[in-house]
Every structure is written in structure tokens, then in C-alpha cells.
Amino acid sequence: MSTVIDTAGLADPQGIKDAGHAGLVAYVSPSRPGSNFAGKPIQADYVDRLQGLGLDVAANWQYGKPGGTAPSDWRSGRDGGRRMASEARERAFVAGMPGWCPIFFSVDEDVSLADWNGAAVEWFRGINDVIGVEWTGIYSHSRAAAWAIEDGVIGRSTTPGKFWIWQTRAWSGGEIAAEAVLYQRVIDTPSSPGPIVGGTRVDVNDVLAPDWGQWSLDRSPGVIPVTPPNPGGPVDAGVTVQMIGRNKSARHAYDYIVIHTQQGGRGDARGLANYCNGTSGASAVSYNVATDDVDTVQIVEDHMAPWSAAEANPIGLHVCLAGSYAEWPRGKWLETDASDSLNESAMLDRTARWVAAKAQEHGIPVEYVGDGGQAGWPRAPRGICGHMDFGRRGGGHWDPGHEFPWDELLKRVLGHLAPPANLIDQAAEIAKAWIGRRLTEGEHHLDAGGRWADFENAAIYWTEATGAHPVPRGGLWEAWAEYGWESGPLGYPVRDHAVVEGGGVQAFQGGVLYRQDGAEHGFYVHGAIGERYAREGYERGPLGWPISNEYDTATGGRRQDFEHGIMFWDPSGVVQALSKE
Q1: Can you tell me the distance from the alpha carbon of 102 to that of 234, in angstroms, rounded to the nearest whole number?
Q2: What is 3-207's CATH number?
């Protein structure tokens, strides 16, 4: 089991390494009035020395303490939690903490359940307001850790079953929470001093999980997989052009998708991107994307925070609807035939598509979590809201306005997230009189997004482009198999089969496949010869059934044989239909 230290002192990094520890939990809080701890707050140059030796770092906030010159932090309630979380985040970033890392917040006393249900849980909710639940951790005894899980105010480690819990041995009665990532086993006190490591007294913590909040672990999206809420597969965000600018800073979380209006001009998304990038006027504003009825323009990469909503910048993904105003009435947002050529409904749908993709990618609930800007912060820790819902802490704006159609936006978002109808099941229902029982449990996935399912008397194949069509056994399916199924020249079926006098016929992407009853092989027609064959009346015409596929001629053309004649294709484009009779 590896160990890490914690101390308000400044332990020499080489001493930490020599003592066999993997790193330390560092304070990102300042010293209390009247004190001057060397290790509070941690500085970037010290972090560089630690990381240069391969030591890991995690962050903790503790300013006040019982009996100290400042009261316990948790007693400051929700407003105090917001203030301390904002300071903790900024100091951690300055020290070198990357995005997607937790910060532990200390409850360093034997709090009761009444204490917890009073000010303490509200303190954590204030912290959640600023840095998000998923990046909030707790330092406490085992009972408070359990209460924090129950009330949903701390996040999960990427280690299954673990939360951001740094549990102290004090007041825990010998219990170690199964969900904890760190356990403070050795506590430095006057009556029981801790060991000296790197020239200073330290506490020693057992590491209980591979992911204990250390800064070296990359938890960014795509590295730690997010399970999409959509069984239909990933939604394409619809970005049409990248116009990446320089107005951006570090991101900390993906808690909200935030809707903005432009409040200026009747410009388009590209024009807004140019403005944000400073190419058509001075600006100090940006968004992750801008949308209009034609384009979705990426201005700031998703993993960076744009400059659009003050304290909400590093915790939200921000989209601005180009040319729009917060003063618009509901009907204006839904217009499809605007006199100035801007299709607001199409812009709303393009925005909904991007919102759906980002909600899916980052597991953000598809729910409006604002209240029209009354509370000054969204009512839930994650969701979809407007710039106005952050109040003065978001810059004091009121876009996208009181008549923005949230219900319509969310309906369209859910429409983009809805899985496609299972057309294989629908095709099987239509063919139930002859197709027989299903042999496949679920569906097999094929290249290019195709799927198929097996039945007693047929196999049904589907792609988004071709739809779902059964290919019957006992003739056509076996003939198609000779050509390599969907991977061969015929591709996927594009029509249901037809039973005709003397055999079966079915159209595929690469041609029309024929197989006569009792014939050993099937043959297909396509291209110029296939077009002429159709004009001649197919198998009912004078040529009858195909008895070969196309093949090269000595003169550089192509030939195909039929029951009662042959067809030639000449490079000049002439097709000759010759009867044997």
C-alpha cells in the first residue's frame, strides 16, 4: 500500500521521496490570521520540484479550525462555501492543478448529524455551485463522509465504488469507509507527534484507490470514458467550421450548457466568431460555439473555458445564437420564414443538435435548471440554463430572455438523442407470415454502420441509407453470399425481394440480383446494361433471365449473357441487345 503525507509545513521533496511516500495532499488555502505556515498555500515552484521527482499532488482547503483565529469553514454556510471554493479553485490553478481534479474541503472536527444538516451541508452545496459536485471532495470522519454521499454533495473517483473522501482516523471509531480514497492513519498532535519527513512533522495517509485525486492523472473527456445516455449511438454536434481564437482560459468542469444571445446586429455565426477572435474589432468575449441557421462555428475548444459568463466560464459549455436578442418574443424564436432571411427555427434546431451532443458526451442532464434568473445561480448542480441564471456572478446579464422557448429547445435536444426506430423489427413484423422465428438475439453490427439479424427463412439487413430489407433463404441469400454479402459488389439490399414466375429478384446498392428456381448460381445486372435490360422488360422481355454476370470482351467492352440473347457494352456507350433466335 502506498502512502502520501500532508503538512502545513514545507517538506523537502527529496526527503518525501527518500521516506518512500508517493506524494502529498497540499493546502491551497492561506494561513489563518496570526499564523504563517510555510506550506499554505502551495506554490507552483514547489509543485514543479515535487513533480520533477515523480511525486504526486492533490489539493485540500482548510482555512479555519476549532479554537483557531478563524472559525471552522463549514460554519460559513452556502455563501461561505461559494467564496472559499472560488478562492480554492483559483489558487489551485495558479499552483499548477490541471482541470478535472478534485479539491478536498475539510470538516476537521467531530461534527454531529445536526451540524451536518444545518450549516455543513449548505457549505458543501455552495462549493458545488462553484466547482461542481464531481470535483468536490471531503476531509472528515467516516460518518460525515457517509452523509456527504447520501446528500449528493461530493463527486466520484474514477476508481469504481470510490468517492472523493479523505477520511481521518480521528472521531471515526476505527471504521474505514469503503468509499474512501485516502485514510489519514498517522495524525501529528502535541501528545503524539508524527514522523519528521523532509525536515517537518507530517501526517501519513494510506492510499486506498488508484485515483485519489492526484494531479498527474488525466481525467479529461475521452480519457475517462463517459457512458452516453443515448442507445442510438453518439450524436454529431454538427460543427461546420473551426475558427479557434485566443480568448480562453483553463476549464475546470462540465456542469452546465449555457445559452447566450448576441445582442448586436443581424450577423451570422462566422461574423460573431471573427468578432470574438478580434479580427473585426477589439473584443474580450468568446463562446465555445456560435450557431445560426446554416453554421455551427467552434470558437473555443471544448476543453477550454471561453470568456462569456464570469464565474460560470470554467464550469459551462457556452453557445451563442448569432444575431439574436434577449428581447425576442417566443414566436420570433420559432420563425421559419423570417423576412430578413434568418431562419430562427433552424438556428434553434442547430443549437439543439450541439446541445444534445455535448449533453451526451459529458453526461449533462437534459433539464432546464434555471429559474429565469431569480436565484442568481442554477437550482441544480448540472443541467442546461441561460446566461441570466448565473445572476451577478455570471456578469449580470439577462439573456437569452424571459420568453426563450426552453420547452421547445429541450424537445429538440431529446429528439436528437432519441435512438432511431428499430427498422429491423419493423421489417420482421411486416414479413412475419413467412420469415419464421428469430434466431439472433439482438443485432449483429457490420461495417459502415450496418446491422443484421437472422431468422429461419431470411436475414434482415439495415443501414441508415438503405433501410431494412429481408433477403430470403433458399435462393437469393445464397446467391448474394457468393458475392461476399454486403462487402461485395452488390452491397446492401435497397428493396424487398420479389417472387416472380421462375425465381426471385432483389435490388441491391450495386445491382439487381436474379436467381432462377433450381439454378446453381444467381447473377446480377447493373450499369448501362442493367438500364437497357430494364427497358427491354427485365426477365419478362425477349432476353429472359441473366445466365452470367458482365465480363470483359477482347475489344475493351463488356458483355453479359442471357437465356435468349446477349448484350454488349461498347466504350462509346452503345448497348446492343441481340437475340439468339
Answers
A1: 28
A2: 3.20.20.80
Distance CA 262, CA 321 (A): 6
- Here the cell at position 34 is 496570526
Kindly report the pTM of this predicted structure. 0.47
Q: Assess whether pLDDT exceeds 50 at residue 141.
A: yes
Nearest to 273 by CA among 295, 293, 251, 252: 295
Domain boundaries, the chain: 3-207, 241-417, 420-499
How confident is the model at residue 421, as a pLDDT? 60
Rounded to whole angstroms, the Cα distance separating 204 from 97 reads 22
Question: Are 271 and 280 contacting, i.e. CB atoms less than 8 angstroms apart?
Answer: yes
Q: Which is it for strands 200-201 and 196-197: parallel, antiparallel or unpaired?
A: antiparallel
User: Quick one: which of 422, 438, 29, 6 has its CA closest to 204?
Assistant: 6
Say how far apart CA 142 and CA 148 lie, in whole Å.
10
Say if residues 53 and 74 touch (Cβ distance below 8 Å): no
Residue 506: strand pairing partners: 513
Q: Taking Cα atoms as reference points, which of 365, 364, 385 lies closest to residue 376?
A: 385
Q: Residue 31 carries which DSSP code?
A: P
> What's the rounded mean pLDDT across residues 220-237?
55
Cα distances (Å, whole numbers) of residue 521 to 146, 484, 505 = 70, 14, 13
Q: Which residues make Cβ contacts (< 8 Å) with residue 96, sequence separation at least 6?
A: 44, 47, 48, 51, 57, 215
What percentage of the chain has pLDDT greater than the value 70? Answer: 93
Class of domain 241-417: alpha beta
Q: Is the pLDDT of residue 253 over 90?
A: no
Nearest CA to 116 among 88, 142, 135, 84?
A: 142
Backbone dihedral angles phi then psi of residue 22, each to the nearest 5 degrees: -90, -15
Report d(CA 342, CA 324) in Å as an integer: 10
What is the tens place of the pLDDT at every residue in 532-567? 888 888 898 899 999 999 999 988 899 999 999 999
CB atoms within 10 A of CB 544: 19
